[in-house]
């Protein structure tokens, strides 16, 4: 009897064991997530998007092996709000990264400001912890430099990089150089322990950031734990830099040298993933925080391809970004998706990959792009273009409606600050803030990606026209959109009003 019982237990144990093994085989750990976020890199900087020098072979190959998104957008034309939107899945007007001190003014966190990411916001790495992820940020944080805003206080487990841009050098009396951190410790400063030679453009930062990425990936692989790597490097933000082997190698000058070094680094990250056998279990997404900074071009700024103006503006050049998704074995090679995508979708998509749901106690603006990446689905959705607290424009389908047009003030313009150098579209690239809320200025982005030929009212269906003529917000309220018609009908949305949380202080 005892022998039989023992045998039965043994058999049962064997069953349990093989079921557990099966479970492991069928539910491997959730995919790793690698977000490669560039700084001020433009849509037109990639060979695959038509850059004539064709100096991005690794990024072009990444696109050929995955999915290219030609219609992918930032959530703001400036770095801090855009990064806050990526990590919270929410528009800057919801997560606090805006100012109400001036109309249509973008807000960010230079070293002089005391504000930063509110504790009440749930950041992607905080949420990914629930699914066992280890998270690292490499490079620029830009969501506040005071202790309460430290990335390790907001879900990241590791950090190598800086709270701010690599501006400088400063005199260290009135203003210290910008610090560089490893986790909680300040390990040096730009222009000191981490030299940037403004004369030659030489700096080794991209190489350091690359090494950090390779090392982190390898360590997590050894631990057999899922990881989130947020590689937020900044060599294409003025002052642009590259290491010695890349300096002077581009057809495009120093900015191109920086691009070449980044392209080479992306190639090394992807081949490292392949080398460790992780490529089928790692989604890699490449994009940029805002459009190329044409104020710094052509020496220190990139290209927005056929799009109008650049960083700081809500024309296409300010917010349409290069974007590539790569996940061999899952995302089929050689695809182009015309899905309207947003940097905020990376939040929701990452949670979905991890098997998590976005927080339900707040509005999340990001969509889950997995159905697009894996099944080629196209979802109808608007893209909102904010400048500070002001909704400047909306795109739905092929149509873009501008409620406000503005480049920068005449005062700034006369001092030589120009967000649209060499581009003057009469009545569009205005230097006074022009209101079009009664009668939006509408472009067809398919036929006119450069926003040069506004549609006349008579070119729109009558139904759209009566919608456009209605409704306006009360002062002091921000604007959100309600979709009334599908983009197939060629209509743009009607507005509705909402109160919003307080601004960045
Ligand atoms: C970069 O690293 C090389 C090799 O270690 C070194 O010779 C060079 O001085 C470094 N350059 C800067 C700007 O730090
Ligand atoms: C742009 O062109 C318009 C008309 O063609 C002109 O009135 C305006 O002054 C120009 N603006 C700039 C900034 O050159």
UniProtKB/TrEMBL annotation:
<keyword id="KW-0325">Glycoprotein</keyword>
<dbReference type="InterPro" id="IPR035626">
    <property type="entry name" value="GALNS"/>
</dbReference>
<dbReference type="InterPro" id="IPR000917">
    <property type="entry name" value="Sulfatase_N"/>
</dbReference>
<dbReference type="InterPro" id="IPR050738">
    <property type="entry name" value="Sulfatase"/>
</dbReference>
<feature type="binding site">
    <location>
        <position position="40"/>
    </location>
    <ligand>
        <name>Ca(2+)</name>
    </ligand>
</feature>
<keyword id="KW-0458">Lysosome</keyword>
<dbReference type="GO" id="GO:0043890">
    <property type="term" value="F:N-acetylgalactosamine-6-sulfatase activity"/>
</dbReference>
<feature type="active site">
    <location>
        <position position="142"/>
    </location>
</feature>
<keyword id="KW-0106">Calcium</keyword>
<dbReference type="Pfam" id="PF14707">
    <property type="entry name" value="Sulfatase_C"/>
</dbReference>
<dbReference type="InterPro" id="IPR017850">
    <property type="entry name" value="Alkaline_phosphatase_core_sf"/>
</dbReference>
<feature type="binding site" description="via 3-oxoalanine">
    <location>
        <position position="79"/>
    </location>
    <ligand>
        <name>Ca(2+)</name>
    </ligand>
</feature>
<feature type="glycosylation site" description="N-linked (GlcNAc...) asparagine">
    <location>
        <position position="424"/>
    </location>
</feature>
<feature type="binding site">
    <location>
        <position position="39"/>
    </location>
    <ligand>
        <name>Ca(2+)</name>
    </ligand>
</feature>
<keyword id="KW-1015">Disulfide bond</keyword>
<feature type="glycosylation site" description="N-linked (GlcNAc...) asparagine">
    <location>
        <position position="204"/>
    </location>
</feature>
<feature type="active site" description="Nucleophile">
    <location>
        <position position="79"/>
    </location>
</feature>
<comment type="similarity">
    <text>Belongs to the sulfatase family.</text>
</comment>
<feature type="domain" description="Sulfatase N-terminal">
    <location>
        <begin position="31"/>
        <end position="355"/>
    </location>
</feature>
<dbReference type="Pfam" id="PF00884">
    <property type="entry name" value="Sulfatase"/>
</dbReference>
<dbReference type="GO" id="GO:0005764">
    <property type="term" value="C:lysosome"/>
</dbReference>
<comment type="subunit">
    <text>Homodimer.</text>
</comment>
<protein>
    <recommendedName>
        <fullName>N-acetylgalactosamine-6-sulfatase</fullName>
        <ecNumber>3.1.6.4</ecNumber>
    </recommendedName>
</protein>
<dbReference type="GO" id="GO:0004065">
    <property type="term" value="F:arylsulfatase activity"/>
</dbReference>
<keyword id="KW-0479">Metal-binding</keyword>
<dbReference type="InterPro" id="IPR024607">
    <property type="entry name" value="Sulfatase_CS"/>
</dbReference>
<feature type="signal peptide">
    <location>
        <begin position="1"/>
        <end position="25"/>
    </location>
</feature>
<feature type="binding site">
    <location>
        <position position="290"/>
    </location>
    <ligand>
        <name>Ca(2+)</name>
    </ligand>
</feature>
<feature type="modified residue" description="3-oxoalanine (Cys)">
    <location>
        <position position="79"/>
    </location>
</feature>
<keyword id="KW-0732">Signal</keyword>
<feature type="binding site">
    <location>
        <position position="289"/>
    </location>
    <ligand>
        <name>Ca(2+)</name>
    </ligand>
</feature>
<keyword id="KW-0378">Hydrolase</keyword>
<dbReference type="GO" id="GO:0046872">
    <property type="term" value="F:metal ion binding"/>
</dbReference>
